[in-house]
Amino acid sequence: MKCKTAGESHGQGILALIEGFPAGITINTNGINAELQRRQGGYGRGGRQKLETDSVEILTGIWRGKSTGAPITLWVKNKDFRIDEAPDLFQPRPGHADLPGSIKYNEPIRPILERSSARETAARVAAGALAKQYLAAHGINIIGFVKNIGGFLSDDPNDAALDYDTVLQRRTQSEFYTLHSEHDDRLKSEIDRISAGGDSVGGIIEVRIFGVPIGLGSCMQWDMKLDGKLAQAVMSVQAQKGVEIGLGFASATTPGSQMHDPIGYDAALQDTSCQGFTRPSNNAGGIEGGMSNGQPIIIRSAMKPIPTLQKPLDSVDLRTKEAVPTFYERSDVCAVPAGSVVIENVAAMTIAECLAENKKH
Questions:
Q1: How sure is the predictor about 308, in pLDDT bands with cuts at 50, 70 and 90?
Q2: Rounded distance, CA 14 to CA 127, Å?
Q3: What is the DSSP letter of 290?
Q4: Residue 92 domain-assigned?
Q5: Between 332 and which of 11, 18, 46, 242 could a Cys-Cys bridge form, CB atoms 3.0 to 4.6 Å apart?
Q6: 359 falls in which pLDDT band (50, 70, 90)?
Q7: Partners of 148 in the beta sheet?
Q8: Domain of 100, in residue numbers
Q9: CA 161 to CA 71: how far, in whole Å?
Q10: How far is CA 18 from CA 34, 59, 135, 232, 355, in A?
Q11: Which of 297, 29, 239 lies closest to 116, judged by CA?
Q12: Residues in CB range of 145: below 8 A, 6 or more apart
């Protein structure tokens, strides 16, 4: 199962083409639209979200509400498409694709800006929401949430033991898609303060995947490893600067005797995804040797602050090479909640791809 996207930020729409989606899966369009709407939510979003009301149109691959096995084409229309009217730009913004993209493709900044925009992730969220319906049919549930914004939340170790339903319930209660809605008012105050200063803020996103059977991915080839595939999918999302699985970076300073998860067996669990093999901890994050081990998969990513700032940064004019300030286009102050929706759905697409591949063997 593969997903490709096409379309620009200010073009007429964004398209996702999903190949290899299995036949016979009941498709709920409302479920896809719900994810698209969540992507547009979260406190701190910019002006574009007031213009777009995303919904999906399925162009191919579905008949009478079920997948046919043919390629599925998803279309998300842009209400704001004025790329031909938009002015040319000559001052690349630090942190964006403007400078390397303009030089690599010998293009003005504008087409680079439009294609590299995070608007593209609307298509990937739609594809991931489709993939989640396939995963649900196999007992796999995936959920993403915001773990931290700008360092303003402290880690709660009790969160690690929460099941899928509890995480979903608690995330739904927060405007920031965190598991602690009691901190929402303080986060709003912090983001308002940052916005007033013309700045932006990033954060930490966590995704948990429950019910993954043992053996997704492979140890046979480096490019088939599940953790490698997930890391690539996460890092392909705009503004992501780091990814970890399980204990992640902390494993570098943890003794092996405390890092690795002992293996036990409980016959009462032999019909579950772990096939009865139990662990008292999950420092591996559900993946060992490039394969799922039956425990929940835990992924975290570090999302940088959005680099389009109301307070301009230093740049140069590409024509004259003289120093100039950057320009400002409407942007988010905090896009971490939206980022959590995107990371959740690209992870879903990756797991669905590996599950479909596994079923061929």
A1: confident
A2: 11
A3: T
A4: yes
A5: 46
A6: confident
A7: 204
A8: 85-358
A9: 39
A10: 19, 11, 15, 18, 15
A11: 239
A12: 167, 171, 177, 178, 179, 205, 206, 340
- Does residue 53 sit within a domain? no
Identify the sign of the CA torsion 225, 230, 233, 237: negative
By residue count, the chain amounts to: 361
Name the one residue in this structure whose structure tokens are 């162009």: 59
Torsion, Cα 252 253 257 261, to 10 degrees, reads: -50
Residue 124 CA to residue 12 CA, distance in Å, equals: 17
In DSSP terms, 56 is beta-bridged to 76
**21-27 mean pLDDT:** 95
Read off the tokens for 96: 């964006």
**CA-CA distance, 318 to 39, in Å (whole number)?**
34
With a pLDDT cut of 90, the percent of the chain lying above it is 78
Rounded-to-integer distance, Cα 230 and Cα 53, Å: 29
Question: Tokens standing for 97?
Answer: 């694709």
Q: Which two tokens stand for residue 75?
A: 């279309």
- pTM confidence score: 0.93
**pLDDT, tens digit, for every residue of 81-109?**
565 677 788 899 999 999 999 999 998 88
Q: What is the pLDDT of residue 105?
A: 93
Q: Which one, of 335, 346, 352, lies nearest residue 39 by Cα?
A: 335
Quick one: tokens of 14? 């964004």
Buried b (16+ CB within 10 A) or exposed e, 264-287: eeeeeeeeebbeebbbeebbbbbb
21 DSSP 8-state letter: P
Give the mean model confidence (pLDDT) for residues 239-257.
Answer: 97
Q: Is the pLDDT of residue 300 over 60?
A: yes
- pLDDT single digits (tens) 140-196: 999 999 999 999 988 898 999 999 999 999 999 999 999 999 999 999 999 999 999
**According to the model, what pLDDT value does residue 12 have?**
83
Domain tally, the chain: 1
Question: In this structure, is residue 55 part of a structural domain?
Answer: no
Structure tokens at 61: 């691959």
Contact assessment for residue 280 and residue 261, using Cβ atoms and an 8 Å cutoff:
yes
> Two tokens at 31?
């479920």
Q: Is the pLDDT of residue 330 over 80?
A: no
With respect to residue 2, please indicate whether it lies within any of the assigned structural domains. no
β partners of residue 248: none
